[in-house]
């Protein structure tokens, strides 16, 4: 993820400053210059970056700070707060309500990832206990309906739509081509079927043009959506400001989803530009797959960006990737501060099965870079498998109580698993590190499934 590079550069600048024996103006300036460079590379607007560094310098008045104050912490906190300020787009004014059908209309340019995002959004809510349905009112792009149908079928989400006219003529089919009529019929159909989240995918265009905005307005007038979500490709960087403004002026955009945050150096610029239009960003797309989709919340996002972890995001992720029947017990144990070797084993097992390991590990403070180095997922998977072989040769007692791990026991495990003693020790060290991280989850409030405060 390219954003990880931005986060990495900022964290490194902060770390270098922390390594300095004395923090004086020169050291602070060097650190801020590094951060400025990283943000400009991510296409964050120059003025935002300049204001940010000015504010930090104002807050961190080195001379005024009494001796004994932890300057590093104050500077780190100031960087954190200022980044949050730059990225904070405000809160959305609408939240979905259980038991009442909500119509959510998606708008955006062609290629922005709108159709993919509609399914991701539906799938995300389906996992949280909602009953979503998809309506394809994109009659402009040939193949849009088939794409939505294919994705919806895969995710077992009901869908409604028609082939576009040109295809219908080719296939000799009679179909409806009026997007407004399709949208209205689809919404009516799913209201009757008691779906509580009806998602309408509308047509995109190659660029902002009158026909697109007119069609958007007509579909919106006819379906009366409770929420309009604007989908935007992050690769346009700070140009996102103008695009978000243009859509806001044509239709009542209530929330924004920024896609392709996985592949573009300009992601940070796009997010900050949208925030500057005061349009609430609710999710980000981080890949082509259905579950490469994350709730966007500024503080946890910045926290992760700076390698400080995101424990509440971790709970959400566990709910996404851990099989349903294992979740209550696991979350209960973690919230009690328990993290046994057995839990570690089961989680490695889950993660090897479920795939997106990096997504889970990036939520852990100080964990992602060491355990899951970027682009080296295969090696990490091999490491998990190695650890699991060693754990397989432990007795049950040893599995649940690593404290009784004597020298002879360690040698027995090494012999039993055909590994070296130092490898067993390394695995136990990893366990201790993980246990320490998870101990921070003690007392964490665990949101119930379906308890959706976010959109
Ligand atoms: P639409 O024309 O706006 O409906 O765009 P599509 O949904 O067809 O997406 C266009 C392309 O972007 C497809 O190849 C998608 O797989 C891809 N895409 C969508 N979202 C993401 C994302 O978050 N990350 C990446 N890497 N690709 C994405």
Automatic annotation (TrEMBL):
PROSITE patterns: SRP54. It catalyses: GTP + H2O = GDP + phosphate + H(+). Residues 280-293 form the SRP54-type proteins GTP-binding domain. GO terms for molecular function: 7S RNA binding; endoplasmic reticulum signal peptide binding; GTP binding; GTPase activity. One of its GO terms (cellular component) is cytosol. Gene3D superfamilies: P-loop containing nucleotide triphosphate hydrolases, Signal recognition particle SRP54, nucleotide-binding domain, Signal recognition particle, SRP54 subunit, M-domain. GO terms for biological process: SRP-dependent cotranslational protein targeting to membrane, translocation. Keywords: Cytoplasm, Endoplasmic reticulum, GTP-binding, Hydrolase, Nucleotide-binding, Ribonucleoprotein, RNA-binding, Signal recognition particle. It comes from the Eukaryota. It is found in: Cytoplasm; Endoplasmic reticulum. Its main location: cytoplasm. Pfam families: SRP54 (PF00448), SRP54_N (PF02881), SRP_SPB (PF02978). PANTHER family: SIGNAL RECOGNITION PARTICLE 54K PROTEIN SRP54, SIGNAL RECOGNITION PARTICLE SUBUNIT SRP54 1. Belongs to the GTP-binding SRP family. SRP54 subfamily. Component of a signal recognition particle (SRP) complex that consists of a 7SL RNA molecule of 300 nucleotides and six protein subunits: SRP72, SRP68, SRP54, SRP19, SRP14 and SRP9. Component of the signal recognition particle (SRP) complex, a ribonucleoprotein complex that mediates the cotranslational targeting of secretory and membrane proteins to the endoplasmic reticulum (ER). As part of the SRP complex, associates with the SRP receptor (SR) component SRPRA to target secretory proteins to the endoplasmic reticulum membrane. Binds to the signal sequence of presecretory proteins when they emerge from the ribosomes. Displays basal GTPase activity, and stimulates reciprocal GTPase activation of the SR subunit SRPRA. The NG domain, also named G domain, is a special guanosine triphosphatase (GTPase) domain, which binds GTP and forms a guanosine 5'-triphosphate (GTP)-dependent complex with a homologous NG domain in the SRP receptor subunit SRPRA. The two NG domains undergo cooperative rearrangements upon their assembly, which culminate in the reciprocal activation of the GTPase activity of one another. SRP receptor compaction upon binding with cargo-loaded SRP and GTPase rearrangement drive SRP-mediated cotranslational protein translocation into the ER. The M domain binds the 7SL RNA in presence of SRP19 and binds the signal sequence of presecretory proteins. This is Signal recognition particle 54 kDa protein. It comes from Anisodus tanguticus.
